[in-house]
Design goal:
The chain has helices at residues 3-23, 28-37, 44-60, 68-78, 109-112, 144-150, 176-179, 188-197, 214-222, 236-240, 242-249, 264-267, 302-322, 342-351, 375-378; strands spanning 133-137, 155-156, 163-166, 183-185, 203-207, 227-233, 254-258, 275-281, 323-333, 355-357, 365-367, 370-373, 383-389. It has 392 residues and is an alpha/beta fold.
Length: 392
């Protein structure tokens, strides 16, 4: 592909990605993979170059761009070497005329106004920096030193005692450490949340929004394979990705349970008042993960946020019914918004008898009764996390 053709491909892809964001469609990485699957003539260098252009344009445009062309014209304002490629040549974009460019920004203004007040304005650019590749060492199979010996490119993460950090783009799936289940991809912030749950061997744990099992695997490792985890989700596709991960990690004490949305209470009635720990890693706006998925900031709308906060409150109330006297309820969202974090924690405290508990996490800042981790201060994805105990 010529440089002009690469630029035109990036324009087409940003168009698709912006449309998918508006309509709740596929993620950017999925759309890029589909695009090149039908364009076999594009070599690996072409794919890398186009992907780089796409994500540079996405990171630059805080508001959803009017078009992919507007987004790339905006990028050309910052990267003047791109402007001459708008030359109308074969397979390239037409010359730039008197037309608007997408504005530079962090995110839609209405969304930034809802960030937790502890997040300072100077931190906001870090939300769109590139994220490293963090790994969690699987204590069922190895210690950090043993895993690190197989990954000489890795450095220990600064906070989590289980973490290793690699450069973005490292092909971890091609290593023996990955194939043998010694490591799992997991952001350091997620590792800290799981460690903050203080899962213990021999206990009963419910992972209420388990998805494909990232935190389930981490909790199982802390249990040393002893006890029982019930990993729940309403998404069959996500749960179906868990079994091979469990097998590779050597985890055998997990029961996956598919829930019918709106009927979760009935499906979990056998666990009511019995769990030692319930983790509610709730669906959220994803404002803490923009480093990895920058297009998700185009997906959030006031209506969608209202639906998410209602679901979070319902899941917290459900989780509270499952813990035994003396048991722990932990709540986490990969969000930096006050209404998904500190406000949810305050509301639960007001409508229940649960007692807030300090978190054994040496990171983050106080945000109400919980902690807020952020890329700018902690070097992790953005998370709010809190925990409570049911009185005996």
């Amino acid at each position: 592909m010529t440089p002009q053709a690469r630029l035109q491909a990036a324009i087409e892809l940003v168009d698709e990605i912006a449309a998918a964001a508006r309509e709740g469609g596929a993620a950017a990485d999925t759309l890029i993979a589909r695009y090149f699957k039908s364009r076999r003539y594009a070599g690996s260098g072409d794919r890398r170059a186009v992907r780089e252009l796409v994500f540079r344009a996405i990171r630059r445009a805080g508001e959803p761009p009017a078009s992919g062309r507007a987004a790339l014209i905006g990028l050309a304002e910052d990267a003047p070497e791109l402007a001459p490629l708008f030359d109308g040549s074969a397979h390239g974009p037409l010359p730039i005329a008197d037309e608007p460019a997408a504005a530079r920004g962090i995110a839609p203004a209405w969304l930034l106004e809802r960030f937790d007040p502890v997040i300072a304005a100077e931190e906001l650019p870090t939300l769109l920096e590139r994220a490293p590749l963090d790994l969690r060492v699987n204590r069922l199979k190895a210690g950090r030193e043993q895993a690190a010996a197989l990954l000489p490119e890795a450095a220990p993460t600064p906070i989590s005692p289980l973490g290793l950090r690699l450069p973005e783009g490292f092909r971890i799936e091609e290593t023996d450490a990955w194939r043998d289940g010694l490591v799992e991809i997991q952001d350091e912030g997620s590792q800290l949340i799981c460690l903050g749950c203080e899962a213990a061997p021999g206990t009963l744990i419910v992972d209420l929004c388990a998805g494909a099992g990232g935190k389930t695997l981490a909790l199982a490792a802390e249990m040393a394979g002893e006890g029982r985890i019930v990993a729940c989700d309403t998404d069959r596709g996500r749960l179906s990705r868990m079994p091979p991960r469990l097998e590779r990690a050597g985890v055998a004490n997990v029961e996956a349970r598919l829930l019918n949305p709106g009927h979760e209470t009935e499906a979990l009635s056998d666990l009511a008042g019995r769990a030692d720990l319930v983790l509610v890693d709730a669906p959220c706006s994803g404002t803490g993960t923009w480093r990895r998925n920058p297009e998700t900031r185009w997906r959030v709308t006031p209506d969608r946020l209202e639906r998410l906060t209602a679901l979070q409150a319902r899941l917290l109330d459900l989780g509270a019914t499952l813990i035994r006297p003396g048991g722990i309820l932990a709540y986490a969202v990969c969000s930096l918004l006050a209404e998904e974090g500190r406000d949810q924690a305050a509301a639960l405290g007001a409508r229940s008898s649960l007692v807030p508990e300090p978190l054994p996490i040496k990171a983050g800042r106080e945000a109400g009764t919980g902690l807020l981790l952020s890329p700018g201060r902690d070097g992790t994805d953005g998370f709010f996390v809190a925990r409570w105990q049911r009185p005996c």
